[in-house]
Amino acid sequence: MDTDIVLAADRIVARYGSIEALHGVSLAIRRGQIVALLGANGAGKSTTLRTLSGLIAASSGSVRFLGEDITRVPAHRLPHRGLVHVPEGRRIFGDMTIRENLDLGSFTLTDDAERRRRLDHVFELFPILAKRHNGDARNLSGGEQQMLAIGRALMAAPKVLLLDEPSMGLAPQLIKEVMNIVQRLNREGVTILLVEQNSKVALKFADYGYVLKGGRIVLEGRGTDLANDDAVVSAYLGGVAA
Amino acid sequence: MSDGASTLSAAAQPPLVRRSFLLWALAALACALALPHFANAYVTEVATTALLYVVLCLGLNIVVGYAGLLDLGYAAFFAVGAYTTGILTSEFGFNFWLTIPVAMAAACLAGIIIGAPTLRLRSDYLAIVTLGFGEIVRIIARNLDITGGASGLVGIERPEILGFKLMQVQHFYYAFLVLALLAVFVCLSVERSRMGRAWFYVRYDEDAAAGIGINRVSAKLQAYMMGAVIASVAGCLYAAKMTAISPESFTFNQSLLILLGVVLGGMGRIPGVVLGAILVALLPEVLRGAGTYRPLVTAVALLAIMLFRPNGLWPDKRG
Amino acid sequence: AEIKIGIVAPMTGQLASEGQDMENAVKMAIDAANAKGGVNGDKITTTTADDACDPQQAVTAGSKLVSEGVTAIVGGYCSGAVLPTLKIYGDAGVPFVIIGANSTKLVAANQGNAFLANSTGDMQATTAVDLFKKNGYKKIAVIDEGDAYSSDLAKLTAEAFKNAGGEIAAKETTTAGEQDYSAVVTKVKSSGADAVFWTAYHAGGALLTKQLRQAGFQGGIVLGDGNNSPEYLEIAGSAGEGVFLLSPPTVDLLSGAADFKAKYKEAYGRDAGAYAALSHDVGDLIVDAIARAKSADQKAIIEALKASDFKGLAGEIKFTDKNTLQTSNFRPVIAKGGKWVADE
Amino acid sequence: MTLDLVIQQLVNGLIVGSFYALIALGYSMVFGVIKLLNFAHGDIYMSGAFVGLIVFSFVGVWVGNGWLGVVCALLVSMLAVGLLGVVIERFAYRPMRNAPRLSILITALGASMVLNGSALALTGGRHFAFNTDLGFAGLDVSAVHITYTQIVLVAASILLMAGMQAFVSRTMYGKAMRAVSIDMGASRLMGIDVDRVIALTFFMGSALAAGGGVMAGAYYGSVHFFMGFIMGLKAFTAAVIGGIGSVPGAMLGGLLLGLLEAYGSSLPFVGSEWRDVFVFGALILFLVFKPTGLLGRSVVERV
Amino acid sequence: MTTMALLEVRDLRLSFGGLKVLQDISFSVEKGAINSLIGPNGAGKTSLFNCLTGFYKPKGGSIRLGGRPITGLPPHRITALGLARTFQNIRLFKEMSVLENAMSGQHCRSRHGIVSAILHLPSQRREEERIRAAGMRWLDFVGIAEHAHRLAGGLSYGDQRRLELARALASTPEIILLDEPAAGLNEREKLDLVHLIRRIRDETGVTVLLIEHDMGLVMQVSEKIVVFDYGQKIADGAPEAVRADPKVIEAYLGTED
Ligand SMILES: Nc1ncnc2c1ncn2[C@@H]1O[C@H](COP(=O)(O)OP(=O)(O)OP(=O)(O)O)[C@@H](O)[C@H]1O
Ligand SMILES: Nc1ncnc2c1ncn2[C@@H]1O[C@H](COP(=O)(O)OP(=O)(O)OP(=O)(O)O)[C@@H](O)[C@H]1O
Ligand SMILES: [Mg+2]
Ligand SMILES: [Mg+2]
User: Fold this and answer.
1) Does a structural domain hold residue A139?
2) Which residue intervals define the domain ABC transporter in the entry (chain E) (predicted)?
């Protein structure tokens, strides 16, 4: 077993009721990498992330995290171990203040000083959150909510961060900013699995990429290789040949 | 892209009921028609109660199942109908049939008075408002002289059709059967119409409904009033059948029982609601043998049904 | 052959306890008759239908009994639930002896087949007014629970007392099932009433008594016949001392009932409630009527009931031409040392 | 109304109100977390009173029928009935988590009927005396007599409620409760054990109701299988008046409802038989003008 | 200007508590135009849409549609007057069929009520047929007619976006407001969307105002762009001019790298 692999899925199958959404997806993520997971609408990207983080149980196959089998570990045990998922659609707690949202990000933490330290770190990354920390999260604009969602995940001090379409609905400048933050986190030692619709953006940063189609991995490779292959881009990534 | 032909066929109106279903429904109807000829008075009595609940549940289903408004005081409209008939026939000597339009108008009015200011409330708040309304109606009935106070009205006139007087359980059984069929027909017609769809739109997403041009308060109010009218007509016939009515028939428990029928069978869908209504009427009778344990056994049965069939026994495909 | 007697009573709901007493006591009487060889050589069986004191359930319960072909029916506790059934029994011509329910409306709706074995509300009102006068009460507060029975009694008593020159200081209504009566108690106290007349049931009566005394009300407390239950004295405790009750004929007041009381306790593991004795009498009465009718023919039984001259545990049962009791069976009693004793 | 009457009714209203508040609080908490109108809450209150009575009659033998006995009964009942709440949640509500809201409502109704039906079957519908010797000693304010028992009762319920409010607003677990109420899935991703948080909420809500039941039983001196029905309705009403889901709202709503009833009983010109019409009428009018309740959050839906 | 402004916004103000979400916003949309609204996250674009459609009540200012004031009217009245919208987070009736969703747009263009439905009046039957036909026509227009009888919630994301469009179009609006219609679409789907938006205008004459963060798409379709920042309008003009505006670059576009 490759000790460098921090998170690995082995032929996972996932279903919603009677519909099978993943038909045996395998992937491996190495320490310190940014890995992109690409695919068209409904390909199963979000489902893959949900299965990895335990939100939905794999009906077969297994997930390993830091060398341990976590297939049957309930979702709420994972953030504490360092696997943190920023879900699709942000899912912030609208009726609570921004500060409370961030506090909840470090729910499992008992050390208040440490919580304070992490909070400062998040506020430094996203000054707008510091400015409005007593306001209700529901009133943030779409982009602001996305920052809050990422900030909240950082409060858990993740080792591996699963990001589901973080650029969705963001202004161009903010996309850049978010991607910069993703890179910065990565430099700080966080391994990242990034789901993106926008393959151009994602592959620019990714060390490695997987392409999903109809619940199966159809392609994988180094980020730059995928990005530069026009055939791949137009066949699987909905890209328009330049 | 679809071709012209399939577009046309898709645009054609679907029939009111599917053919295969129609066969079953006709068979059920035949049984229903024949029932009093085989059954004794008790069974007919219970079946009549079941039909009463069918009508009431179908009415409440419009409010709860179609428009998504939680109504915990539905028995109030039932009471409005029953008391209108009771008062008009026994105090003012009205012909029974003339009391029905009056009761419908009264129910509409009551629906507007309570619904217009409150229907914009969130569902849980609406629940308590309707509950309060139900209690208010009951307490008023209990305390006024014209309603006979707590002991209610006795000696309510029995209706006559073409010189034939409805007297026995069997007669009322058929009267309620006609009313239930009428209610089914009305619900089917409205469900597939513009207003019926509007109720569903409002139920599933109020804001989106408003955003595409539906007046949500007016739509809700219409559902509420229509439910009220159906309950009031059921009330008229109920009063005539019982000949004695009292506030105890229109309690919060009665409202809950009707709601139970709606949800138990499968909310929002007519066959489910009919089934639920019949069950609500039959279950306590079937369990009569349980004596003091009857409420407990009924409750356990109810819980079991909900746990195994969370969407009701005969749920809507829409889920 | 077999003779089947229907028992209709609240077996569930708030008044389930009373209903169970009624069923038990009637069954005891029937069992005793069977032990003596039944009636006219036939065995007697019973079947119970629960009306839950709810009019709608009462109607189905009633038609169930009729459909089962019962010879006669006994029971009925809540007037509201008995009222709509009178038509069913009347149409079927079944003899029906009402044990507990005693609203005056029952008399009007009776088709001739029903008999009220309990004294009606106006008899009780008269007894109550006599009691008020005897104790020198001039201003009375009347409190009911808003149901048919208690509001009927409250109205009748208030009228009778006014006619007798008394004053009604307050007329209040409480909600059944509520525990707190303080608001009403405060109102009654400030109305300056000499006495309170509670017309509803014992559960509320005990709480009201307690709270009246706790609030320092010094006047008299008089209770209607729905309050005769051992539970009243238990719950009211010392606050119940000196309270008057217009009692139906209960086992404790009846000299000849000691044996019945003991047997009842032995058979059912509980004390015989307020209507146990009367229910037992009605059970005996119906057996007696069938015996006198010499057949299970319902018309004959109705005639036999009309001609009843029956002496039971609870006293004499003779009917007027309206099928109500000729003599009131209410007895004013007073609570002394945790017991009801006759009010001399 | 004379001043004495006004003061006396104020006292009356506060006492009933504090019961309502206590029960409403549990109602509101449970509603807050799983958006369920827990119809069984009134029956939990009733169960609490019965458990309290049983404990009281056992320990009374050793510690007498005074305060000590009541406190023992209170604590044991709160613990036992709190657990009962957890069991009900586990077996009746948890399987229904993803079911339509109305179905859960009906399940709650079923749970309520099960508790009520069991109590009926076990007690035969009898009323039981809960005889304490707490006495009538107390203070006299103007012409109004206030017993120490009443003071302790109001103080105890305020204390319980304040503790609850502190727990919900201060502790991480309290925040987790609110988070779960907003979005269960997202809460899991925060590391919150949703099942446990919900169970805890039921425990606390049920324990509060049980506490209310024991106090009411001891104060009024009687316990009955039907006592929870009206109380459940009142608590629901109080919770809505206060703004359902809000802890301080439930407190205020309970007290307000108590006062409305007390004064509603002594309205001039109309009798106490119209009290509930007055109370519900006031409630409806109030909701028309303040649709979110006293302390409920007014939410402009974002579209 | 020679052409009449279809939508005219004057000095519109909106605030929540102390937060000034819109400050004296004025702009207009010409009949038959395709205009865009851009700006950083939180600039107030969606809030503006909510004011235009009656979901928010503005603090001040006026909105005119075809010369008629619509400020403060409830949403359903505004839709009936010819202004339709889609939502930033898709708000379909997920539990209903695709066709029923599309038919919902016709509600404000039809009139039969409960009584005529119960009586099955011939005119009511005809109206029902008209509503269905219109629903189908618009499904066909956006290209999802083959899914007519599926549940809306089961459609793919892109198709859900199309259905929102069909539903809004079915109310036969004068102007349609689209809130980030391209969010979550890939390049190819975005290209389809551009065609669709053009067809809406060209084939049905409906005016389009859209909010979008995808600058490629915005530049491609719009004739005029309005730019918001912190609740204020900072630019308003032709795409090229806006793209070159230093204020817009500073606040929104950022420098290309
Ligand atoms: N809650 C759900 N219930 C039923 N089916 C679902 C659910 N969520 C997703 N699916 C189905 O599972 C499949 C995969 O969906 P998933 O959300 O993982 O796709 P995705 O790649 O994330 O797409 P997108 O880019 O639109 O987010 C799709 O066919 C979708 O319809
Ligand atoms: N109902 C509300 N209550 C309080 N603040 C609100 C409300 N609605 C919007 N806001 C605030 O108004 C500002 C503008 O929000 P809006 O949603 O209009 O932004 P937007 O331009 O659409 O942003 P995005 O591109 O991210 O969707 C934000 O700061 C938001 O927090
Ligand atoms: Mg996804
Ligand atoms: Mg927006």
Assistant:
1) no
2) 7-255
CA-closest residue to ligand 1 atom 22 = A46
Predicted TM-score of the model (pTM)? 0.90
Question: Cα–Cα distance between A39 and A45 in angstroms, integer?
Answer: 7
Q: How far is C14 from chain B (nearest CA, A)?
A: 12
Tokens describing residue D162:
């304040």
Identity of the residue in D124, D129, D229 whose CB atom sits nearest the CB atom of C177: D229
Splitting chain E (257 residues) into consecutive groups of 10 residues, what average pLDDT does each group show? 77 89 94 93 91 93 93 94 91 92 93 89 92 95 92 87 94 95 84 93 94 91 94 92 89 70
From CA E225, how far away is CA E248, in angstroms rounded? 11
* Domain ranges across chain D: 3-289
* CATH label of the domain that carries residue A64: 3.40.50.300
Number of structural domains (chain A) is: 1
| Contact between A76 and D176 using a beta-carbon 8 Å cutoff | no
Residue B5: pLDDT over 50: no
Separation of CA A178 and ligand 4 centre (Å): 18
Q: State which residues form the domain around E61.
A: 5-82+173-253
For position C23, what pLDDT does the model report?
94
Number of domains chain E contains:
1
Residues E252, A172: contact at Cβ < 8 Å? Answer: yes
In a domain, A55, yes or no: yes
Q: Where are the domains of chain B?
A: 41-251
**Ligand in nearest proximity to the CA of E87:** 4
Lay out the sheet containing A191-196: strands in order across. Answer: A83-86, A160-164, A191-196, A34-39, A208-213, A216-222
Q: Pocket residues for ligand 1 (CB within 6 Å)?
A: A 16, 19, 21, 39, 41-47, 88, 197; E 157, 184
Residues C210, D276: C-beta atoms closer than 8 Å: no
Q: Whose CA is nearest to atom 4 of ligand 1?
A: A16
Residue whose entry in the numeric block shows the structure tokens 């036969």 = E172
Residues C11-22: tens digit of each pLDDT: 887 788 889 999
> Which residues make beta-bridge pairs with E37?
E211, E226
B71 to each of B136, B238, D294, how far by Cα in Å? 14, 21, 22
Can you list the positions of beta strands (E) in chain E?
Answer: 5-16, 19-30, 34-38, 60-65, 68-69, 83-85, 175-179, 207-211, 224-229, 232-237
pLDDT, tens digit (0-9, with 9 covering 90-100), for A183-232: 999 998 999 999 987 777 788 889 999 999 889 998 888 878 887 777 77
Cβ pair D266:C179 closer than 8 A: no
CA distances to B234, D241, D280, D281, E92 from B133, in Å: 19, 15, 7, 8, 34
Spatial distance between the Cα atoms of E149 and B287, rounded to a whole number of angstroms:
43
**Distance (Å, rounded) from C-alpha B43 to C-alpha B31?**
14
E189, A238: Cβ pair inside 8 Å? Answer: yes
Q: Which atom of ligand 1 is nearest to the CA of E184?
A: 25
Provide the H-helix boundaries in chain D: 3-34, 41-63, 67-88, 101-123, 148-170, 172-182, 184-189, 194-220, 227-242, 247-265, 275-289
Contact E163, E101 (CB under 8 A): yes
Cβ of D230 under 8 Å from any chain C Cβ? Answer: yes
Q: Does residue E72 lie within any of the structural domains?
A: yes
* B253/B265 Cα distance (integer angstroms): 18
Alpha carbon distances (Å) from C208 to A228, B102, C170, C219, D266: 88, 43, 15, 13, 17
Could you report the per-residue pLDDT of C202-231, keeping only the tens digit for each? 889 999 999 999 888 999 999 998 888 878
* CB nearest B292 (choices: D121, D287, D291): D121
- Judge whether C45 is closer than 8 Å to chain B, CB to CB: no
Return the residue whose CA atom lies nearest to atom 2 of ligand 2: A139
* D3-289 placed in CATH 1.10.3470: yes
Dihedral of the CA atoms B44, B46, B48, B50 (nearest 10)?
Answer: -140
Question: Directed axis angle between helix D67-88 and helix D194-220, to 10°?
Answer: 140
Q: Which atom of ligand 1 is least distant from the CA of A49?
A: 18
